[in-house]
Amino acid sequence: MVNKVYNNRAWLLVLPMLALVAFSAIIPLMTVVNYSVQDVFDANTRFFTGIEWFERTLNDAGLQAALLRQFAFSFTVLAIQVPLGIGIALLMPKRGWQASAVLILITLPLLIPWNVVGSIWQIFTRGDIGLMGVGLRELGYGYNITRNPVDAWATIVLMDVWHWTPLIALLCYSGLRSIPEAYYQAARIDRASKWAVFRYIQLPKLTNVLVIGVLLRFMHSFMIYAEPFVLTGGGPGSSTTFLSQSLATMAIGQQDLGPSAAFSLIYFLIILLVCWVFYTAIMNMQKDKAERGGV
Amino acid sequence: MAWMVWTLPTAVFFSTIAAILAGMTAWEVISPTVERKGFLPIATTRGDRLFIGLLSAAYIHLIVVGFTDITIWFALALSVVWLLILMRWG
């Protein structure tokens, strides 16, 4: 065990960054807190409302529904993308030109900007010219994302899976490549089945990258905005209106700065909690490993 | 500073947070924290416990404000007590 010397003076080196973050994040966040307890009309006209905006936001049926929908969406895409990503990573070629070719092909969706993804799928699913829209209708299914909430949901989930499963696959692929060949040789000597190799060698080695992948995908899907906004506009009705879109409607559409400030803070607290839980989980996993004599 | 539309309660709130952070820094310089395991499922340092305390205080306030008719001062008192318990035995 190496005894590390802790010198807290190193924190001084972080000061320039802290100043930058203060201007870009902390001071604006403080302003949001100030707005959340007032009704601000202009620089001179404002009324103190106290906890009223928070009370109203927390009891707003529309926002509660958007929050539930948001969680449902995040868990659905995670439940599909994580197993699918692992599966793709396992099937990817390990070396040679095929490996490079597959890597490039798989990365392509990740390079497309969010609103372009929305536009692509908007056209893809149109009933008159879109390949998928027309195709499904030809097969006899009355597919319509502007009328049928189930179709809209399925399409958004499918779009997110198409866009982001490659990220999980890439992370898992790099995780799989870091497993030494000796592990597989030992497994062959033991005549371990493919499932046993996956369950006791590959999956444990993937845990770290999977936690990072799940964290990234959760945060990202929890803040999804541009793709459903372009594809369905939150409809039909409000069946695909997620949190960030409700927030944008309140803050920009209706200029309700007080309520949307309160809403942002609640949104921020949820994300902060989830982030902290994931971060703690990752840190504890690494600590456990270090204690077991690993890394 | 006028554009930040300060109010007395939010100014008091942020001053308190700043004072707590300054106090924690001073405490850390005088006697550095030792990571230990209390009733929480993970080993924590003093700063970890403060963070957990403040985050749960935020949720306590949201629950009291949003879903009960109890006064917010009760939430504040409960949060302070919870924070102290957490700092001492967490």
From TrEMBL, chain A:
Transmembrane segments: 12-37, 71-91, 103-124, 152-176, 197-219, 261-282
Superkingdom of the source species: Bacteria
SUPFAM superfamilies: MetI-like
Annotated coiled-coil segments of the chain: none
One cellular component term from this protein's GO annotations in UniProt: plasma membrane
Keyword tags: Membrane, Transmembrane, Transmembrane helix, Transport
Protein family membership: Belongs to the binding-protein-dependent transport system permease family.
Protein name: Carbohydrate ABC transporter membrane protein 1, CUT1 family
UniProtKB/TrEMBL annotation, chain B:
This protein's record includes keyword Transmembrane: yes
Residue stretches spanning the membrane: 6-30, 72-89
Top-level lineage group: Bacteria
UniProt cross-references to InterPro entries, sorted A to Z: DUF2160_TM
Keywords on record: Membrane, Transmembrane, Transmembrane helix
Name of the molecule in the record: Predicted small integral membrane protein
